[in-house]
């Protein structure tokens, strides 16, 4: 045992083993589970190749890749949507699509809501579930942090033009949001489909259910591309990893298994300005 321990110390002191490579991907917490899982699979299939994945939100991902501080910046929003980012220097790799749904604590008595009333909850105009036919229970609004791409997408498609969400508690992590909603009666927030489990309830909007099929046709409008940005065209390990994520192996199995939607199955396309067109 002492010999093994001494050998471990020696190898650590000597630094990385020759031939090892690593890259870092930072940003969107909605995309993080996919990049982590793909990174683990890629590393298992390519000895000595490591993908370091960190969260921090889409704003962090775009800021870090724009500064050339990491190899990949993960984002739920187009770089063009983020002020202070020169999108012309970045290359967009759309690896998947994610639907975003409002979630509530089980037992509010509301399962369907109009888009207008959903917006009114987040602007503070509706404050009790009984106003929507539910229980006499105060609505607690929980938001994502200002740098969150999930929040940017939700605000863009839910809040009336020119309106802002009320000042309320904010969280950076989608997992933490789900946990708080599950355990705090009357709470509402929103997460990517991939974070929904049986501890929370989703709301349909104007009778439309939050499903992959409804996202693909744009009947469910709260969705975004999952972008992996590079500063210029990718090379080396970065190029190889992005090609792996776009491969049939990942697109046809891992992406759907984790609750994402393969981009090539969408029946519509959306640009940075929010314009939607049918896929030919």
Number of helices: 9
- The CATH superfamily of the largest domain appears as Periplasmic binding protein-like II
Helix/strand order, N-terminal first: HEHEHEEEHEHEHEEEHEHHEE
The CATH class of the largest domain: Alpha Beta
Rounded to an integer, what's the Rg over CA atoms?
Answer: 21 Å
Whole-Å distance between the termini?
64 Å
For the record, the CATH architecture of the largest domain stands as: 3-Layer(aba) Sandwich
Percent helix range: 25-40%
The rough form would be described as elongated
Average pLDDT number: 91
* Low-confidence regions: 1-16
If you consult CATH, what is the topology of the largest domain?
A: D-Maltodextrin-Binding Protein, domain 2
Domain module tally:
2
Assign the structural class, choosing from mainly alpha, mainly beta, alpha/beta, alpha+beta, or little secondary structure: alpha/beta
Would you kindly provide a written description of the structure presented here, covering whatever features stand out?
This protein has nine helices and 13 strands. With 280 residues, it is an alpha/beta fold. The protein has two domains: 132 residues, D-Maltodextrin-Binding Protein, domain 2 (3-Layer(aba) Sandwich), CATH 3.40.190.10; 118 residues, 3-Layer(aba) Sandwich (D-Maltodextrin-Binding Protein, domain 2), CATH 3.40.190.10. Strands 1, 2, 3, 4, 6, 7, 8, 9 and 11 form a nine-stranded mixed sheet that branches.
């Amino acid at each position: 045992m002492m010999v093994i321990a001494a050998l471990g110390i020696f190898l650590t002191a000597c630094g990385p083993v020759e031939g090892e490579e690593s890259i870092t991907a930072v940003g969107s917490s909605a995309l993080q589970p996919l990049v982590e899982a793909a990174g683990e699979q890629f590393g298992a299939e390519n000895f000595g190749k490591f993908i370091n994945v960190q969260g921090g939100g889409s704003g962090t991902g775009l800021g870090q890749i724009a500064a050339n501080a990491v190899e990949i910046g993960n984002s739920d929003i187009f770089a063009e949507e983020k002020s202070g980012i020169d999108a012309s220097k970045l290359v967009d790799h759309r690896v998947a699509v994610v639907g975003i749904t409002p979630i509530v604590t089980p037992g509010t008595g509301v399962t369907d809501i109009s888009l207008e009333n959903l917006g009114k909850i987040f602007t503070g105009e509706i404050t009790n579930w009984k106003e929507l036919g539910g229980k006499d229970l105060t609505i607690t609004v929980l938001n994502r942090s200002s740098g969150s791409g999930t929040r940017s997408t939700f605000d863009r498609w839910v809040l009336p033009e020119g309106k802002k969400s009320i000042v309320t508690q904010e969280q950076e992590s989608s997992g933490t949001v789900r946990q708080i909603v599950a355990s705090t009666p009357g709470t509402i927030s929103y997460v990517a489909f991939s974070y929904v489990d049986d501890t929370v309830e989703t709301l349909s909007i104007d009778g439309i259910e939050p499903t992959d099929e409804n996202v693909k046709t744009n009947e469910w409008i709260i969705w975004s591309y999952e972008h992996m940005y590079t500063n210029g065209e990718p090379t080396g390990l970065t190029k190889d990893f992005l090609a792996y994520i776009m491969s049939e192996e990942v697109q046809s199995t891992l992406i759907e298994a984790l609750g994402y939607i393969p981009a090539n199955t969408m029946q519509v396309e959306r640009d940075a300005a929010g314009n939607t067109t049918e896929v030919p």
